[in-house]
Amino acid sequence: MTQPTDLAEHSARLEALDARARLAWAVDRWGDSLLMTSSFGPGSGALLHLWHTVAPSLPVHFIDTGFLFAETLAYRDRLVDQLGLSLVVLSPELPREDFLRKHGLTVYQDDNDRCCAHNKVAPMQRALVGKNAWVSGLRRDQSQTRADTPIVLETLDGPVKVHPLADWSRRDIYRYQESHHIDEHPLFAQGYVSVGCEPCTRPVSLDETDERAGRWAGQAKTECGLHTFLEKKGT
Ligand code: SF4
C-alpha cells in the first residue's frame, strides 16, 4: 500500500483515525521536538488526558500571562495532580506590574493586540524555538475563525501544528471528560464556556452559539494571536 508522502496527505488520512491515534502518530514522528500546550480552560481536560496516556514522559506547556483567573491557576494545579502531568510554565518577559507601568494600566483595553503580543505570543514563540511541531486543542466548532482547522497544518518557516481534536464537538469533549472522571474548570458552571485572561473574558449567555463570544466581547478582536502568528504554508 502506498503511504502518504506529505503532511497534507497525512492530515487527510488522520481524519479517519481517532484522536489518540492522531496524537500517537505525532509523538512517534516528532518525539520530544513536539511541544504540547494547554490553556487549562473549560474542556482542556480531554486533550490533557489523551496526552498523558500517549506521551506520559513529555511535558505540557502553559502560558501564565499574569492576567489569568485565580480559578484557572487552581484548576491547572488540580489537573496536573489528577492526571500526573509534568508542567512547564511559560512567562512574559516583563511581569504584570512592570508591563502595566510601561504600557499603561488599561493596556488590555487600549491596545489589546500589544498586550497579547507581549504576554501570550512572545512566550510561545520563545518556547517553540528548536521545536518541529506543536499540539494544541483547537476545534472547528469553537468559532467561525477556526472552522477550517485541519488535523495537521504546515506553516511557513515554523513548526507543524497538530490538532488531534479538530473535528470534536463541545459535546464530545464533555462526554470524554465525564467518562474519564476529569474535573471541569470551576468557572464553567457560571457560564464561562471559554476562559482566557480575566480582563478580557465574560460568561456567555444561553443564546450565544459561539463558545468564544465571551472573549474580548464588544471588540473586533477574536483571537489572541497564538494561533494566527504562524502563516499557513501555501497561502
Ligand atoms: S487576553 Fe487580554 S489581558 Fe490577556 S494578554 Fe490579551 S489583551 Fe492582555
Question: If you had to describe this structure to a student in words, what would you say it looks like?
Answer:
This protein is of the alpha/beta class. The chain has a single domain, classed as HUPs (Rossmann fold). It has a six-stranded mixed β-sheet. The longest helix is centred in the middle third of the chain and has 17 residues. It binds iron/sulfur cluster (SF4). The site of iron/sulfur cluster has 13 residues, from helix 7. Iron/sulfur cluster (SF4) binds next to helix 7.
Task: Record keyword descriptors for this entry.
single chain; 235 residues; alpha/beta; Rossmann fold; 8 helices; 36% helix
Give the helices and strands, then pairings:
Elements: H1 7-14, H2 19-30, E1 34-37, H3 44-54, E2 60-63, H4 70-83, E3 87-90, H5 96-103, H6 107-110, H7 112-128, E4 133-135, E5 152-153, E6 160-162, H8 170-179
Parallel strand pairs: 1-2, 1-4, 2-3, 4-6
Antiparallel strand pairs: 5-6
The structure holds iron/sulfur cluster (SF4).
